[in-house]
Amino acid sequence: MQLAKTLSYSAKMLSINDTKIFLVSLIYGLFMSCSNNPYPNEEQKGKALYTTFKSAVKNLDPQQSYTMVDLAYLRLCYEPLVDYHYLDSQKLVPALAKTIPEPQISKDKDGKVSEVRYSFSLRQGVHFIDDACFEEGKGRELTAYDFEYAFKRVADPATNCPIYDSLSFIKGFKDFGKQVSILRDMKKAGKEFQQNTEAYINTAKLYKDAGNLPGLEVTGKYSFDLILSDKYPQILYWLAMRFVPAIAHEAVDYYHPEKIMKSNEPVNFNLRAVGTGPYKFLWSEFRKSQKVTMVKNQQWWGQKVKSPISIFPAKKTVDARPIAQMDRIVWYKESESLTKFNKFMQGYYDVNILPPEKVNEALAGQELTEDMKDRGIKMNKSVELSIRYIGFNMQDNTVGSIEDKEQSVRNKKLRQALNLALNSEEFIRVHLKGMGINAQSPLPPGINGYDPDYKNPFKYTDDSSLDKARQLLVEAGYKDGIDPKTGKPLELSFTVAIKSAEDENLYQFFIDCWQQIGINVKLDKNEFNQFQKKVYGMNYQMYYWSWAADYPDPENFLFILYSKNFPTPNHSEFNNSEYDKYFKLMETMADGETRTWQEKDSQGNTIVKKATREELIRKCIDIFAEETPWIMVYHDVYFQLYHDWVKDVKNHPLFTYPYHYYDIDTERRQSKRAEWNQKSIWPLYALSFGFLIFISPALLTYYRERN
Amino acid sequence: MSAYIFRKTLVTLPVLFGTQLLLFLIFFTVSSPTDIARRVKGPKAKEEVLQRWIAEKGYDKPVFYNSQATSLKTKVQDTIFFSYISKLCTFSFGKSDYDDQPIWWKLKDGVGPSLFLTIPIIFASLLISIFISMLAAMFRDTYIDRSTVIFSVTAMSVVYFLYIVAGQFLFSVQFKWFPVSGWSDEYKLYFAALPILIGCIANIGESTRFYRTIMLNEIHADYIRTARAEGLGDLTILFKHLLRNAMIPILTRVIMLLPYMFTGSLLLESFFGIPGLGRLTVDAINFNDFSTISAVVYLSAILYIAANLINDLSYTVVDPRVRLS
User: Fold this and answer.
1) Parallel, antiparallel, or unpaired: how do β-strands A606-612 and A630-643 relate?
2) Does A433 touch chain B (CB under 8 A)?
3) Least CB-packed of A659, B193, B199, B239 within 10 Å?
4) Are residues A74 and A11 in the same domain?
5) Are A447 and A480 within one domain?
6) How many CA atoms lie within 13 A of A144 on its CB side?
7) Residues A601-633: b if buried by 16+ CB within 10 A, e if exposed
8) Is B266 exposed, middle or buried (0-12, 13-18, 19+ CB in 10 A)?
9) Which three-class secondary structure state does DSSP give residue A32?
10) Beta strand spans in B204-277 (E)
11) A530: which chain B residues are within 8 Å (Cβ-Cβ)?
12) Mind listing the pLDDT tens digit of every residue in chain B (325 residues)?
């Protein structure tokens, strides 16, 4: 009744005599105001890039976070000393450091390396963003003491830095951590804590009280030396990640963990990013499970200073220009890939990873379809620095490398036969729609040591591989796959995590391959947590796993099988002294370096050996192929789609989401969006007409009966 | 009546305890504190980092029974289960395992969007399906009634997921009437319109079939015949007599849907990017966020119990013959 009155009143106000006409007009008006534009309230001025996230940001403390999700934001707001070149993933360029320092190696009187010193000189005039944690809310200038604090905080065990062990090459690193822990425990046992359990220990003061970190010497306001106890060239790669960026102790201690949230604005340092980078969070729009917006940091030093990290790297076809062209970068949560893809096709997202379920629609072979090209959509194919593999339990009596030498050799032949039977090429074609590269060794393309011509002798090539596999089975004591103990086909167990029905199909492919040589492999299906538990507990025969690199160095792949890295990441418990020896030799070498070492031959004579790093890598790979602790399946490939209004989109295996390098032609985007999203009215008329046709006989009958 | 309410409230305690016990049994059978820690700290985190996190969160205790403890009291009290139960009793949900955010904040943020989505879905589909079912009852054994049955059975047979995908494809991708997904606090209706429409369409089939059966049972009753004999109009008979007498089963169904209003629609929220409690639950399960799962299960159990109680009480309102004792 009230609604009718309101409508009637509104109709009179608008001088419409009939309420029904007004109601129809209202519905029509409401319909006309409908649109599929998902940004009805977005400011159209300025350049904005629209993109998505699937998992909400978890931890924005750069010294704790180790996920790609968080890294997408951390790369934009925190800056490291050195960074990766945008167009060359193997190359590092100076970021907050003025230059990349050369290691200065000191040796003791025995000729052994006593210390390796990297002298960093920082850029001047770099400021933290304005934030309440600073005096008067004004971001102060970055100095070498901030890096001293950052290194000390990484060394503090309470920080829980995931690369704590990798940084232990820094002189006195672990001892300093122990000292901090002792001091913290003492403070916690003190009066202040006894009276107030929620008291917070100021980290800046704590680290000062703990004394100097021997591996870090501040040599001036803008310079410091990083001192390692041994050669470790990979340290620069670790520094290019965001674990030791410029962080302000004021921010860490102001946004301490005991602070209680009073609004959606984060008040703990693990979500409150205060950096020096080209972008900063817009806290008023921060809904970490819904939408995240970053805006340009107008104080960013890179806007005034030309450096390799602030200028788009010029090549013949690309003009040099300052980076950070976008005024805003807006992320929306999209859990479903189909939804995301639909919005990308409507022009509402600028970039998108091609979901496997849309490969047939978007690609013809490895190229975009003509339809996609006509819409101005472009594609980048990128190979991830990763490996997917099937690992063997090397302690298992049937497939492992065990004490009984003869059995161990037979088991090796069984592993080789299983490897030969698995047709990775076909797997990639059928199940991954071409989104993978057949792996011959653990090293993917883009890593030093990767040889495109290398062929693993135990990988499937054609049907003759199956004959070879059958021959190996005979030598392993399983003729035609028959286990002599049971007289039946040999049964093995394959432990996997199943997330969907599609996963089961993938694994069934492997089982069918092995079935061809007579081996009966049973799928041990698990929920992911159960799967992890089984793998960590060595409660399996074969398992399916993957590894993604932290930095582009072969050491980051070969270390997985180093015997001392059991149980993780060496889940297979591979233990081969030759492999260990070559790995340890190459571990701390620089690319192209030659190493000399001494060995004893079978007669006990000392012989001097010499090899380049690349030769040592090859030796590791050969041992790996011969021993076959893994069946390597593929390296991940993904196809990134983007509209032609997005400029300078390049692939970088380690630079996930380098949005600060992109540029946008907003006018073209606006016109394309308008062209692609014209509303269709005819379905409404068709629906109304259909309903009338359906209901009219009933109404006619009803009125006829009643009259 | 107050004795009844008091007795019913007492019954909630073992039910709440039971749901938590079941949750603990299921969760810690398939998962372990190390699994939770690994999910939080990442697959590459070192063992000592995981153990430190486990100790900080109090997951280093046994789940149900601490055999290491000295007294019987501490054997029970010094466990994960006891510490959770004691916190839940005072509604101290603490912080999320996954991202350390206060769980109350998450629940508070999620309940608004969930209600905005589910209230219109429940009431619009209720009104539409009651209207259609009354129409079917009025035109029983005609093509309208038969079409209603065919439509209901067909609509019931289609999975919810398909409604969403097809709805998005038709209304957003093809007709371009609504955004494919999204959410904004300022434009709630703009973004919620399509999920509400799809939610209604998906619900109408089943509820129409249910209400049609009720209406058909009632339309043959003597009081309807009497009303007709008195010369009352069709609309008066339908809305004043038929609907009122069919109210008990309708109320039962509607009240039992009330907890769903708060807990949200898992699929709709996930596909349409609506930051409600349904998506919060799905995310918590995906991320092994036990503290959030536990809080959501606890609140859901309370809501279901409350809905049951309201259901019983409402009978006395709509039917004076019902007495609670």
Assistant:
1) unpaired
2) no
3) B239
4) no
5) yes
6) 16
7) eeeeeeeeeebebbebbbbbbbbbbebbbbbbb
8) middle
9) helix
10) none
11) 30
12) 778 778 878 887 888 888 888 998 888 887 888 888 877 877 667 777 788 888 888 888 888 887 777 777 778 788 888 888 888 888 888 888 887 788 988 888 888 999 999 999 998 999 999 999 988 888 888 888 899 999 999 999 998 889 999 999 999 999 999 999 988 888 888 999 999 999 999 989 989 999 999 888 888 888 888 988 888 888 888 888 888 888 878 888 888 787 777 666 888 888 898 989 888 888 888 888 899 999 999 988 888 888 888 878 877 777 777 666 6
For residue B137, the chain A residues in CB contact (below 8 A) are: none
Q: Are residues A274 and A139 in the same domain?
A: yes
- The distance of A89 to chain B (nearest Cα, Å) reads 22
How many domains does one find in chain A?
Answer: 3
Q: Cβ of B151 under 8 Å from any chain A Cβ? A: no
A560: CATH: 3.10.105.10
Q: Is residue A196 domain-shared with residue A256, that is, in the same domain?
A: yes
Neighboring chain B residues of A67 at a CB cutoff of 8 Å: 42
Q: What is the 8-class DSSP label of residue A120?
A: E
Minimum distance, in Å, between the CA of residue B175 and any CA atom of chain A: 5
pTM of the predicted protein model: 0.82
Q: Phi first, then psi: what are they for A332, rounded to 5°?
A: -120, 145
ipTM value = 0.78
**Between β-strands A630-643 and A594-600, what pairing exists: parallel, antiparallel or unpaired?**
unpaired
Q: All domains of chain B, ordered by start, with CATH?
A: 13-89 (no CATH), 109-318 (1.10.3720.10)
Find the Cα–Cα–Cα–Cα dihedral A353, A354, A355, A356, rounded to 10°. Answer: -130
A287 touches chain B (CB under 8 A): yes
Q: Could you tell me if A292 and A233 lie in one domain? A: yes
Write out the DSSP string of A588-603.
Answer: TPPTT-EEEEEEE-TT
Tell me which residues of chain A, numbers 20 to 59, contact chain B at a CB-CB cutoff of 8 Å.
31, 34-41, 55-56, 58-59
CATH number (domain holding residue A254): 3.40.190.10
Strand, helix or coil for residue A663: strand
CB contact under 8 A, A165 and B182: no
Tell me how far CA of residue A219 lies from CA of A119, A308, A658, B320, in angstroms. 9, 25, 33, 89
Alpha-carbon gap, residue A368 to A364, rounded angstroms: 6
Token pair 């930095």 is found at A551
What is the Cα–Cα distance from A85 to A149, expressed in whole angstroms? 27
The shortest CB-CB distance from B49 to any of A40, A160, A529 is to A160
Q: Are residues A196 and A247 in the same domain?
A: yes
In this complex, the residue of A31, A680, A702 whose CB is nearest that of residue B176 is: A680
Domain assignment present for residue A330? The answer is no
User: Measuring CA to CA, which residue among B206, B183, B203 is closest to residue B193?
Assistant: B183
Spatial strand order of the sheet with A328-333 comes to A48-53, A328-333, A291-296, A279-281
Q: Are B142 and A40 a contacting pair at CB < 8 A?
A: no
Would the CB atoms of B49 and A162 count as touching at under 8 Å? Answer: yes
Number of residues that make up chain A: 707
Does any CB of chain A come closer than 8 Å to the CB of residue B154? Answer: no
Is residue A316 classed exposed, middle or buried when 0-12, 13-18 and 19+ CB atoms within 10 A define those classes?
Answer: exposed
Residue A188 carries which side chain, given as an amino acid letter? K
Range of the domain at A168: 48-320
Are the beta carbons of B99 and A58 separated by less than 8 Å? yes
Q: Residue A66: which of B42, B175, B187 has the nearest Cβ?
A: B42
Model confidence over A91-143: pLDDT tens digits?
899 999 999 999 999 998 888 889 999 999 999 999 999 999 999 999 999 99
The kind and range of the H/E element at A218 are strand A216-220
Nearest chain B Cα distance for residue A472, angstroms:
36
Contact A543, A429 (CB under 8 A): no
